[in-house]
Write a structure and sequence with these properties.
This protein is of the alpha/beta class and 221 residues long. 32% of the residues lie in helices and 22% in strands. It is built from seven helices and eight strands. It has helices spanning 3-14, 36-41, 57-65, 78-90, 139-148, 162-174, 201-208; strands spanning 18-19, 47-51, 70-75, 96-100, 115-121, 149-159, 178-183, 214-219. An eight-stranded mixed beta sheet has the order 1-4-3-2-5-6-8-7, sandwiched between helices. Helix 1 crosses helix 4 (78-90). The longest helix has 13 residues, at 78-90. It binds S-adenosylmethionine (SAM). Residues 52-54, 75-77, 80, 102-104, 121-124, 200-203 line the site of S-adenosylmethionine. S-adenosylmethionine binds at residues 52-54, 75-77, 80, 102-104, 121-124, 200-203.
């Protein structure tokens, strides 16, 4: 491991805005479950999650745009989370937190209806059929989101991967979820919301490679 990575891991240990639970298997409910607003944020603002947040660009930038929400960036890679957590601390963003977990255990960390919105930003597309269960918009993950989202809660997906976009459209169709926005070419579309212009580390790489960005917004009704 590089010296820089070790330094980041050491800093992560003392960051007040980063929760790094011990891995236990089978997973058990964490004490933060159901207590985010009261114990962590100490306010009653809605909670928005960024799943597979990497360096947390969506988390930090949306928190700047919408200070009346709380944001939690989730990823299992500590060195990436360090970047987002450090920026949020430097900017005194008390409505931002980071959680280092495997997303498949998310129901151990959020109670039913505790979350208002979920953003999935450039997830690994897991193209092999044998890895369908690992796609963050597969029925397996959607049923977890359904358990933690409030009624009428919204899911956003931003991806460069057209197949994952199509796959997710099929899931929306089959389950009769309410499609709120959809494009396979975001920057040529009529969608102009400021938050859609936030660009993550991966998005910038994909754009440089000439990729088109796909976006979906839907309600798990
Ligand atoms: C392609 S990267 C995108 C990162 C960031 N959203 C961006 O756009 O720059 C996918 C991220 O998802 C995280 N990830 C993938 N599967 C995960 C899982 N099951 N639990 C937690 N994080 C996961 C990886 O660690 C990685 O940081």
């Amino acid at each position: 491991m590089t010296k820089r990575k070790l330094q980041r891991f050491a800093e992560n240990e003392i960051f007040s805005n980063l929760i790094q639970p011990k891995l236990v298997y089978p997973p058990v409910d964490d004490k933060i479950k159901g207590a985010w607003k009261q114990e962590f944020f100490r306010n009653s603002q809605p909670i928005v999650l960024e799943l597979g947040c990497g360096r947390g660009e969506y988390t930090v930038n949306m928190a700047t745009m919408f200070p009346h929400n709380n944001y939690v960036g989730i990823d299992f890679k500590g060195a990436r989370l360090w970047r987002g957590a450090k920026t949020a601390l430097e900017n005194h963003m008390q409505h931002v937190g980071f959680l280092r977990i495997q997303i498949q255990y998310i129901e151990s960390y959020f109670a039913q209806g505790e979350v208002d919105e979920v953003w999935i930003t450039f997830p690994d597309p897991q193209p092999q059929q044998s890895r369908e269960q690992k796609r963050l918009t597969s029925p397996r993950f959607i049923s977890m989101y359904r358990n933690i989202l409030r009624e009428g809660g919204i899911v956003h997906l931003k991806t460069d991967n057209y197949d994952l976009f199509q796959y997710t459209m099929d899931i929306i169709d089959k389950n009769k979820f309410r499609l709120l926005a959809s494009t396979d070419d975001l920057y040529s579309s009529e969608l102009k919301e400021e938050e859609l212009k936030i660009q993550t580390t991966y998005e910038k790489i994909f754009l440089q490679q000439g990729a088109r960005i796909c976006y979906l917004k839907f309600m798990l009704a």
